[in-house]
Design goal:
Distance between the termini: 27 Å
Number of helices: 15
Largest sheet: 4 strands, antiparallel
Oligomer: single chain
Number of strands: 4
CATH architecture of the largest domain: Up-down Bundle
Radius of gyration: 25 Å
CATH class of the largest domain: Mainly Alpha
CATH topology of the largest domain: Glycerol uptake facilitator protein
Structural class: alpha+beta
Strand order of the largest sheet: 2-3-1-4
Shape: elongated
Number of domains: 2
Amino acid sequence: MIHLRMVVPPRQVDRTLTLLTATSAAANLVHLRGAVRRPDGDLVMCDVTSEDASSVVANLRELGVPEGGAIAIEPIASQISGGAAATESSTSVSEAVVWEEVDTRTAGMTALSAQFLAMMVLAMLVATAGIVQATSILIVGAMILGPDFGPVAGVCVAMVERRGKLASRSLATLLIGFAFGIVVSGLVALALKNLGAFPAALSETPQHLPRAVSSVTGGPNFFTFFVAFLAGVAGILSLSTAKTGVIIGVLVSVTTIPAAANVALCGAYGQWGNVVSSAEQVGANIATLVVAGTLTLAGQRAVYAHRRRVQRRGDPARAAAGLPMGSQ
């Protein structure tokens, strides 16, 4: 269930209450007249089923509620009710996409911040240590630390929703984050090499590394695209349905951070051939993630758009509130 808390301007209160009263997906409707200041308005609250939340919010937008008021969307962890409250199955809850929440999550994951840059550097340094010591567990740890899936998801959302500013911000965050992480990691590796903490030379090829390590730092192959595509689908599904535990698994599957760390490490040692192959690995992973994520999100959006068209043609709540019917 989703809890909606609305500040409704006085001129829209009656139609808003009519809409929510007639909406079968809404329950636990509360109206407090004149309870809100800045902006002045009535406080209206209700609970709606997760699968219908975005449709209800879209109807409220058509009524003009956000223009002079506000709509807050809060997930309900659990609800106990023996009354006539709207209910939803566990299946619908797990599959429901609340598009407003997707936008909010994405916005928070695409911002270029000091924390984002710090996490990129830390992840690459851990991966660098894993490559130098040929330790697979450090490589996995670096994958989990990497925050780069957020901007990738932002690009996917921007492409589906045709939001140029979000696409630009996400791409800028992604490019600046990788560039900053590679430069800082490379300088650290060079300093540690000169101090004697890192070996004086690295092998020109990754064959000395365990296969699990060399496969994520060398050039791309079929499995690079195959795994990245599957990870992109899983990542967007987990993002859109708020399953954060799945995202961790996705990060372990994506080899952007280890390959970027190898770019920095090999750059510090002057191994430019390996720099190029690892950079190709990074690019191939990011491109495949974006393609897979965009296709997945576009499919989810198409399902929502179809359902929205059907509801607009025969939703009695829209008719009661005086909203236009039809598929447009």
